[in-house]
Amino acid sequence: MRNELALATIALSLSGCFSTPAALRGNYAAIQPGQESIDNYVGSEVRWGGIVSDIRKTDAGTCLEVSSYSLNSLNSRPTTQLVSSTRTSQFLACGAQLDTSERRHAKGSSITAVGALARTSVGQAPAAYCQDGALYAATVHAQNGDVCTVSLPVLRVSAIHVWPTPPRSVGISSIGH
Asked: What is the pTM for the complete model shown?
């Protein structure tokens, strides 16, 4: 009986790693941050995720700038740890409930957010950030000398989940040293 109880406890604790958190569940539009004509989808409910690359105060409130990654189909976690992972674009996750004084919304945090799409935010960035493979490569509208104009999709966050940092793997060569 004790072994069965222990196994049940382990199974329940692991199930959280393999299912989508309750606040993120639902049916969402299959729209991606790097998709063209994204302003045609304003108001659509989406589920996006990635790694927080910056924190901004805007007219829309506090926004997390997020390097977008595809989401794991089982738990909706950004697939940043997988070899097949691809960063698609940047987006802004904005909302009153984002408390950037908390470490959990800090740069480098892995997040998944749900909410409605708002109009894109247009701004300028140094041209070096707009080259192929660079931070804003998928969002460039124009480039003029040292500056490029970028357009970032805006997600009005209704719920957000900050993922715990996965444990570092330990290689065999590091054991006992």
From this structure: 0.78
